[in-house]
Structures are given as structure tokens and as C-alpha cells.
Write a structure and sequence with these properties.
The chain is of the alpha+beta class. It has one domain (3-175): Hypothetical Protein Pfu-838710-001, CATH 2.40.320. It has helices at 15-23, 89-100, 144-157, 170-175, and strands at residues 3-11, 29-40, 46-53, 62-68, 76-85, 102-115, 118-125, 129-137.
């Protein structure tokens, strides 16, 4: 079964202000994660292998993630499926590269904060700069509008303006 979230992505103008505002929301969890995302060529949606490093519980493990979402600015619904990988990430990456070809690789250091049902990601993306993402995980009884309302409230608290919103994925931005 697929999971759903409402997400936004924005360019960060003042990283220190954003971190201070995010920490003031009293996150239930906060950690720094170094991630390498390898995107593969697929006919629709996006498929990526995420390799974790410098993460307390997930060092040198990973996830295979398929997701589909519109490339629009502002809050948008994303459906996704994830599979945890506890075998050799390098071997599996090699098989996927051979079968599908690599579309792009994104290297980032992510500060992840959990606030209620929302993951706040503050990303330093190699070759692109600083960005933030909100991922409001929708419960089965919640509508996309419920998630959009939560995202919009957090945008105000984090001082994220609508002109800073971006569409697409980091992998797409790196290709430009």
C-alpha cells in the first residue's frame, strides 16, 4: 500500500534563521543525515536508491523509494512506496544501474526535525545550496487539504514565502 504526504520545497534565503525557527517548534526528534540519492531512468514517477551515512541508526543502509508527485510549486500530494535495504547497497545499486541506467545523483547533508506529523528537512545540496522541505504525513482519515493547511501554517512559522517555493526534485535542478 502506498503512503501519502503533502510536501513543499523552498529555496532558503537565511539558513541560520530557518534553523532557529525550526528548533523553536520543539521537535520530537532531530538528527543530521548524510544522504546519497541515485535516481534511475523510469517511465513515470521517480525511483531512487537512498544510501545513508553519518546517521546514528542507519549507517551504510538504505532505502529504495518510488514516488510520484506533480512538479508544481506550493503544497502538493505525493504518493510513495519505500523498501528498507539491509544488504549491500553498492551491489543493489550496480544491478539497478545496469538494468535502468542512472538519471542523476544527488548528494546532500540533511537536518531532519520531526514536528507532529511533519518532517522538516533542511538540506545542503551539493552544487545547489540550501533548501528546505516540509513533508506532512497524511493519516488515512486526512484529506490533502488537511495536509496543505498544516504545511501552510508551518511555512508562516518558518518564515518561508511563496516566492521561495520551487517545483521538481533536486535531481531535476542539477540537470539544468
Amino acid at each position: 500500500m502506498s503512503s501519502r504526504n503533502v510536501e513543499i520545497k523552498a529555496k532558503v534565503r537565511n539558513i541560520n534563521d530557518l534553523i532557529e525557527r525550526a528548533n523553536s517548534l520543539n521537535p520530537e526528534r532531530s538528527e543530521i543525515i548524510k544522504q546519497y540519492d541515485t535516481f534511475y531512468n523510469v517511465s513515470h514517477g521517480r525511483l531512487k536508491m537512498r544510501k545513508f551515512e553519518l546517521c546514528i541508526f542507519q549507517n551504510n543502509t538504505g532505502e529504495l523509494i518510488y514516488y510520484d508527485r506533480p512538479d508544481t510549486e506550493g503544497p502538493k500530494v505525493s504518493t510513495f512506496k519505500k523498501a528498507s535495504i539491509n544488504v549491500s547497497i553498492d551491489d543493489l545499486t550496480s544491478v539497478l544501474e545496469e538494468a535502468l541506467g542512472i538519471k542523476n545523483i544527488v548528494r546532500k547533508v540533511r537536518k531532519m526535525l520531526l514536528v507532529g506529523q511533519t518532517r522538516i528537512h533542511i538540506d545542503d545540496v551539493e552544487g545547489l545550496g540550501h533548501f528546505m522541505e516540509l513533508e506532512v504525513m497524511l493519516h488515512d482519515d486526512q484529506s490533502p487539504e488537511d495536509g496543505e493547511n498544516i504545511a501552510n501554517e508551518l511555512m508562516v512559522k518558518l518564515n518561508i514565502s511563496k516566492q521561495d517555493l520551487i517545483s521538481g526534485a533536486y535531481a531535476d535542478m542539477l540537470k539544468k
